[in-house]
Design goal:
The chain has 12 helices and 34 strands. By secondary structure, it is α+β, with helices and mostly antiparallel strands.
């Protein structure tokens, strides 16, 4: 009896071990290789994954069978022959079937928040157009934010392919979608988008360990964060510092539980004329909680309907109530406040809007943004008189938390490296805001990033198309220095690299928003450059005038441009030029078109010009150099004579 039990036990163990071996041998695929994927057409493509060492892998595709074995590390690769764009297919890899595969053109879409910004934040401009989107041939793969140090990751922690349908479109990158739409409409092939953009990130976060070694300070920082245990200890220390900073401090918002309600005494509340910043209104209040209230009158019919409440752009976070009911909250300053007010909240007669604003610095309701209630047949303006009262003043400074994703190599390792095996048509890039103030360093880093990605992919001719930064901030009346202009100049200089294209986005920005909504315009200009660089279309005018040469003749500067299309647009007074003499003091300059590609620039105030600038400002309002096709010139700076 005992021997039978021993045999039974051994059989069970063997079964478990066998099951374990079988399970471990099962092929594992990277997340990019999954249902709905788009593979690059007209070129051999790699299908890869992992299995037990020496495990057989059989790939079946379009009537052909491809066999391989995993190496001693468990890695395996199969190369599929080039395929034309066509209808959906399936691939079987051992017992895994990948469905709904298309061949087309795949673009890696990266950078920071202006590339990441989703369609749902552009509805002021594109609401009706977005309602019509339903294109299964445009697909996006979006993975969770992930950083890594030391070793590049081999796979993403999440993500899936989604098509441009009503169920998915709101979370598509707006820039990437409009870019893809342009290409799809022209070439009628599926367009795949691998979206890796992360808001607020500097260029060095997207560069590999191998290339960052050229920059000793950045490399030292990357190595520090790669040290085993360093991040864990940093997080623990910062948490302890936060606890100590807040120890004994119990900030109490006097308005909590009451100031959002309808009928409260506001006789002691102060006046605020919306919009505007606290500083402009002489409200010396920083790091505080401030409550704002306004009353509006509605008819019985108006009160019986739902409404949309628009509250523009608030610095920093808000919670908003209508008649005592919470209708929306936003945790940071950038998203547009678009809050739905459901039926049953509004009422005939007096209605109260209450906004609780938390500021970590000087707060504001930004100008030239929508502040209104939208009803079916009437729009109620909310600018003008409001009342306010401070709930908490002088909150402790938060700070103290390290943003690991911003550190050198962090996002290359976590977000770019896992896609290096996936064949793509090219890259689109929209980034730079986080490097303003470091333009000299950016000039080198950005060029190295472009070369780095091509090297890591072993694709020296990989097209790299990028967006130059648009205008931002209030326009200056006088010539001045500009960190944004310096950054744009650093971006312009990357055009010396082969297979690059730059979309000038001047004219598409908003002075009061680092995240302008006109992403359709950005996508269009990126797509024009992609047609030239990636698709070899030499018949189109893909960009505005590009400075090629300069010459000084007396007190005149002669500038020659390429990419003028049908010619420089001449039926206008040219604005945006400044020149300087040996004193390096820039003054506004006159300019005139001499012929289809040449401009003369001068100023009676400067007899011996040594430098000329165009569009040199954070917001070069009025700068209007363009070609007859309407595409704007990049801002630029040229040192004509070396100043001794």
């Amino acid at each position: 009896m005992q021997s039978k039990n021993i045999v039974k036990f051994c059989l069970i163990v063997l079964f478990i071990l066998g099951f374990g071996i079988q399970s471990s041998a099962k092929v594992k695929l990277p997340r990019l290789i999954s249902d709905g994927m788009i593979l690059q057409r007209d070129t051999p493509v790699k299908v890869w994954g992992w299995a037990s060492p020496k495990e057989s892998v059989i790939v079946k595709f379009r009537g052909e069978t491809y066999k391989t074995k995993a190496d001693k590390n468990g890695d395996w690769t199969v190369i599929l022959p080039a395929q034309k764009a066509g209808e959906p297919s399936e691939i079987q890899i051992n017992d895994i079937i990948i469905k709904n595969i298309l061949f087309g053109d795949v673009w890696l879409c990266s950078g920071q928040s202006n590339m990441e910004l989703p369609i749902r934040r552009t509805l002021d401009l594109y609401r009706e157009e977005v309602k019509e989107i339903n294109n299964p041939y445009i697909r996006l793969f979006r993975m969770p934010n992930n950083y890594a140090f030391g070793e590049p990751l081999i796979d993403y922690k999440g993500g899936e392919w989604k098509d441009a349908s009503q169920a998915n479109i709101m979370e598509f990158s707006a820039t990437a979608y409009f870019f893809a739409k342009e290409l799809y409409n022209k070439y009628k092939v599926p367009i795949g988008l691998i979206s890796t953009a992360i808001g607020g990130t500097p260029v060095e976060a997207w560069i590999s360990d191998e290339t960052i070694k050229k920059y000793p300070d950045l490399n030292a920082e990357a190595e520090k964060f790669a040290t085993i245990g360093f991040i864990e200890e940093t997080k623990k220390r910062e948490q302890q510092e936060r606890l100590e900073r807040w120890s004994g401090i119990r900030p109490i918002d006097k308005g909590t539980g009451s100031w959002h309600k309808e009928d409260i005494d506001i006789s002691e509340w102060k006046d605020y004329y919306l919009p505007g910043s606290w500083r402009e209104k002489d409200m010396e209040i920083n790091r505080s909680v401030i409550w704002f209230r306004k009353e509006i009158e509605l008819t019985k019919d108006e009160a019986a309907q739902a409404a949309i409440l628009r509250l523009g752009y608030i610095i920093d976070s808000d919670s908003t109530f209508v008649n005592g009911q919470l209708v929306g909250t936003t945790s940071y300053q950038y998203p547009p406040r678009i809050y739905n007010v459901p039926e049953g909240i509004l009422k005939a007669g007096k209605n109260t809007v209450a906004i609780r604003v938390v500021t970590n610095r000087g707060g504001a309701f930004m100008e030239e943004k929508p502040y209104k209630i939208i009803l079916s047949d009437r729009t109620i303006d909310l600018t003008g008189e409001w009342k306010y009262r401070v709930g908490i003043e002088n909150l402790p400074i938060e700070g103290g938390y390290t943003s690991y994703q911003d550190k050198p190599t962090a996002l290359y390792n976590g977000m770019i490296a896992p896609s290096n095996n996936y064949k793509i048509k090219g890259v689109i890039w929209y980034q730079g805001e986080s490097n303003v103030g470091r333009a000299k360093e950016y000039e080198a880093l950005f060029k190295d990033l472009i070369k780095d990605w091509k090297t890591q992919r072993n694709e020296p001719e990989l097209p790299f198309i990028y967006a130059q930064l648009p205008e931002l901030n209030r326009a200056n009346k006088y010539p001045s220095e500009s960190g944004m202009a310096e950054l744009r100049e650093a971006q312009r200089k990357a055009l010396c690299l082969p297979y690059t294209g730059m979309a000038v986005t001047l004219g598409l920005g908003d002075w009061n928003d680092i995240h302008p909504q006109n992403k359709k315009g950005v996508g269009h200009r990126l797509a024009l450059e992609a047609q030239r660089v990636a698709y070899g279309d030499t018949t189109i005018v893909s960009r505005g005038p590009q400075l090629e040469n300069f010459e000084v003749k007396g007190n005149n500067i002669i500038l020659t441009f390429s990419s003028v299309g049908s010619g420089l647009y001449s039926n206008q007074v040219l604005n945006g030029f400044t020149i300087a003499g040996r004193d390096n003091r820039y003054v506004w300059a006159e300019a005139a078109v001499l012929n289809r590609n040449t401009i003369k620039v001068w100023s009676n105030q400067v007899q011996q010009p040594v430098s000329v600038r165009y569009g040199w400002a954070d917001n070069p309002e009025g700068a209007n150099l363009k070609n007859k096709e309407g595409l704007p010139a990049s801002s630029f700076q040229v040192e004509l004579i070396k100043n001794k």
